[in-house]
Amino acid sequence: MEQLLDILSPDFLLRNAFYAGLIVGFVCPQVGIFFVLRRMILLGIALPQVSNAGVAFAFLLHTLGWHFFYHMESEKVMALTGSVVFTLITIFVLAILERRRKGFTENRIGFTYAIAGAVSILFVSWNPYGKSEVLSMLTGEIISIPDIYLWSMLAIYGTVFIVLIGFHRNFILVSYDIDMATTIGKKVILWDIMLYLIIGIIISFGVMTVGPLVIFGFLLIPPVAARMVTRGIPLFCIVSSAIGVIASFAGFYISYRFDLPTGPTDVALLCVILMLLYFGKMLFRFKR
Fold first, then answer.
1. Among 49, 109, 129, 198, which residue is least crowded by beta carbons within 10 Å?
2. What pLDDT is attached to residue 244?
3. Residue 154 and residue 58: Cα distance in Å, rounded?
4. Helices 41-63 & 15-37, crossing angle to 10 degrees?
């Protein structure tokens, strides 16, 4: 109980990490539901890896003297730029190939994940000076989040959430039933591009702030868990974010209480929730 009161205190030393986790837990599942509706869950694994490659590539350029920004945080601004550019280019290329129905979707995403993982390691290996800093960023230093990152995350994720709520019906329609959306005159390509931009921004900034593992976990596991136990889109969305926030809160408390790394603890807890809901649903069916 003493640790819980410490976490809830306004003067808590690690409050930025705690608040960032709650923001990620609340907003990321709202983006992840579109991966589930489009049955493109593997894309949620590949894109954070692509963002990783962008971060590592930008750090390598910075170390080699290719400075595009000249101030104290220039390497982190470059890393964010690299993450956004790599992620958005990949999303749009995959989207174009998907529309042209070139090959199998799983093959394309699998290839993307493999090549992104490989070049990430190569970029880090070629970086002669910043290897430890890059590795620290890629694994997600949730504990050490500066104020500027927290406020930036609040602004970006808050804006994304407002856009998702404001245009919720259009995003759901083009994701759930693209034929109907086309029939009733919706501009499917426009809404697709808008959704891809949102996905790219959420993943790029999230990877920079809390790491790819945490982003992947909160993007996909809460919607998958919520999908098993809910019917109807509104309840699906609400339960997804509720699972994300509960896991983030409880995961942070457990990691603080037992001195564990926060990101892996959050993801492990999400997996436990998913399994409990699965077995609970099986038991409910068995009793009926």
1. 129
2. 92
3. 24
4. 130
For 41, the token pair is: 């869950």
**Contact in structure between 246 and 197 (CB atoms under 8 Å):** no
Sign of the torsion angle spanned by Cα atoms 239, 244, 247, 248: negative
CB 214 within 8 A of CB 205: no
If you write DSSP's letter for every residue of 141-202 in order, what string do you get?
Answer: --S---HHHHHHHHHHHHHHHHHHHHTHHHHHHHHH-HHHHHHTT--HHHHHHHHHHHHHHH
Over the stretch 231-254, which tens digit does the pLDDT of each residue have?
888 898 899 999 999 999 998 889
The average pLDDT across 51-68 equals 77
- Residue of 158, 186, 195 lying closest to 20 (CA atoms): 158
Tokens of 60: 């390598």
Confidence of residue 275 (pLDDT cuts 50, 70, 90): very high
Cα atoms found within 13 Å of the Cα of residue 253, Cβ hemisphere only: 15
